[in-house]
Amino acid sequence: MKTIGLLAAGVAAVGFAHSVLAQDAGSDDDLIEIGGDRSAISEQPAPAEAQTVAVPEPLPISLTPQSDPVGLARLRAPFDLIADDEALEKRLSKQGIVHRLRGIDVPFLLQPPGDVQPDGRIWHKGKMPKKTLLARLSTRPLSEVEITFTDKDEQQIVMRLAEAAWRSTNDPKPAYAQTGIIYCSRSTEKTEDDDENPGLGSFCLVDEDRNGTFDAYMAGEGERNGTVHALNFVGPPLPLATPAQYRTVDDFQLGQTAEWHTCGKDWDKPYFVPHLVEGQIEGDAPSEISARRWGVYCDRGEPTEAFLPVEKKAITADLGSLIFEIGSKKRGAKATVRGLLNQDVKYREESGKIVPTSVGMTPMHARISTAQHFDIKPFLFDGRENRAEGVFGKDEVFLTLGFRHGYTGVVESDVVIRTLLSKRTVEGGEYVYGVPAEKRSVVYGGYGGTTILGPPVKRTMNTALVWCLPTREEKPIYDRRSRKPTGKVDIEWTATCLPETSAGNHTVLKDQSPALAVNNMRMEASISTNDGPPPVTQTQNADFGAPLSFRYKVDSVSKNLITLKEEVLLGEEVTSTSDVLLAIVGEDSAPVTAAGGQLLLKIVEDKDGDNPKFELQELRPLEEGESARVVGVDILAMLRALLANGR
Q1: Cβ of 428: how many Cβ atoms within 10 Å?
Q2: Residue 623 gets which letter from DSSP?
Q3: How is residue 81 annotated by DSSP?
């Protein structure tokens, strides 16, 4: 069965994701998380051709322009940058920073398997085995270079860097060209007892004219710490004060260890997952990766005739270009690695997994691309604000921020969708707001068994603006006993949206939520549609009949978190509510980031009691035109990071 969209339990789904790389740190309203958590393995039919979606994350702080971007860049760079502050400030300016970001891959090659290999067995019956390791190989970069430089403490440092490659994100307004040779390092991080030294961190150097010297430094970001191959994008190139010479070396030192693990129950088409582990590990040493079923993404092997099996009734199978001989079931399905099918395949790391670079963008690349296509914030602070003065308690409004939508339009003519049983209509002249989105199709098939999800790789991009408008409905309240109207009504706010299908037609979807900030959308592939895109013309602003605002109260306090209740208002009427989590810093305060500024929510009384009291202080003023919504802690991102690094 073909469906449009993303995973929903047994239901066709359409998923839309906001552009998520903000122009400043942690703009949480820059994402719409799409229909459900795919990290879990559930007892559902296996997807036949399902694509996966990366859960969006905000722009990492190390690539974010701060109040002193030039000073911050000079502090973080391990090299002396040019003395021209004006030139550096131009490259680091907040306006259009998303178009100064560039996607990269830092590829590596798999080395042929060594003589010593683990005694692995394919999971073909019973529960997941405690030992899941099937094979262990070494990796190496495409090439390595060595540089010698003097750091800011006048110490001479010799460093290795790995060859990287530019990854095009089809930016419509690029700030600089993708030229030159780029090499990257994921070096020492900041130590806990050294507040002054930020460490060398992750960075790349570019030889712009390919003459054997590096001309520019670029801050780098990746999905996890520990390996250069996890770098996915870099910030703007900052010219070096003195070009740094480099030399190519043959003794590779930046290689890692590739491990193949069994992770699903099958024999002739075994499920497996390839992991990249930091450092070099002996072939027969115990694996540091625990056998986890929850949150494991598996690939599926295929039988191959590239090698002939030695054991009777055994088969050979291709598990990600690594050829295994799999023994008979009666003999325990022993897995013996036979060799590489193709030694020239280039790989990269994604969340600890080994993925061919040929599959396309990483999830982080996709987020950059979406942000570069839709670089206006969805919720812009319009300058209206109201803050609590003095001490306040739980359930008291302490912050209200007015906003307007970044993308707005007007419906030019009536949109009518008819089915056998109903009719859905959006009248011409209605104002709508735009949701910057990623759109995808998913095919489900198969029956029974356990779902083994495909790798978390963003293969293709299909971006669009999805137009929605808030809808207010008064529903009569009935007496439970007599079932007669009480004369009272229940107000229900939803959104009506005009999404496009994969065929390029548009339809009407009612009862979406939240009314003013849609974050989930589902529809059947066979839904009734009209030809072409929806008849919407983009306008400067939309009038929904009353001012829009976010309103915040403290809902609860725990040891490490403060939970805020966020309300989205149209005039004085609440259209939706949600929770926002803030991390407590130290013992008694939590930073509140919103509208390009930062406030501090301090607990001044009774932190551990039932009635704590708070004060709000300003650390950095709010700026009109910045993303209005309060940025919260991304719990899902924290859990994913723990899983990715939980060796």
Answers
A1: 11
A2: -
A3: B
DSSP codes joined into one string, 519-555: --B-B-TT---BSSS--EEEES----SS-EEEEEEEE
**Three-state SS at 573:** strand
305 Rama sector, left if φ>0, alpha if ψ -120 to 50, beta otherwise: alpha
Given its phi and psi angles, is residue 283 left (phi above 0), alpha (psi -120 to 50 degrees) or beta? alpha
Report the C-alpha gap between 63 and 98 in whole angstroms: 10
What is the per-residue burial (b if ≥16 Cβ within 10 Å, else e) of 129-147?
eeebbbbbbbbbbeebbeb
Tens digits of per-residue pLDDT, 544-555? 999 999 999 999
User: What gap in Å lies between CA 532 and CA 260, rounded to an integer?
Assistant: 47
Structure tokens at 387: 């803050």
Cβ neighbours of residue 242 under 8 Å, at least 6 residues apart?
A: 80
Residue 635 burial (CB count, 10 A): 10
Most confident of 126-130, 197-201, 399-403: 399-403
pLDDT at site 196 = 42
**Do 211 and 246 form a contact (C-beta atoms < 8 A)?**
no
588: left (phi over 0), alpha (psi -120 to 50) or beta: alpha
Helix 69-76 to helix 85-92 angle (10° resolution) is: 100
Burial 486-510 (b: 16+ CB within 10 A, else e): eeeeeeebbbbbbbbbeeebbbbbe
Reported confidence tier of residue 215, pLDDT bands at 50, 70, 90: very high
> Who contacts 125 (Cβ-Cβ below 8 Å, separation ≥6)?
265, 329
Beta-carbon contacts of 445 under 8 Å, excluding residues fewer than 6 positions away, are: 1, 45, 46, 47, 48, 49
Q: What length is written for the chain?
A: 647
Please say whether the dihedral angle defined by the alpha carbons of residues 393, 394, 395 and 398, taken in this order, is positive or negative.
positive
Find where tokens 């450092």 sit: 279
Tokens linked to 50: 């399902």
119: Cα separation from own chain's centroid? 36
pTM of the model: 0.75
Q: Model confidence over 273-322: pLDDT tens digits?
A: 898 888 888 777 888 777 554 445 678 899 998 888 888 889 999 998 89
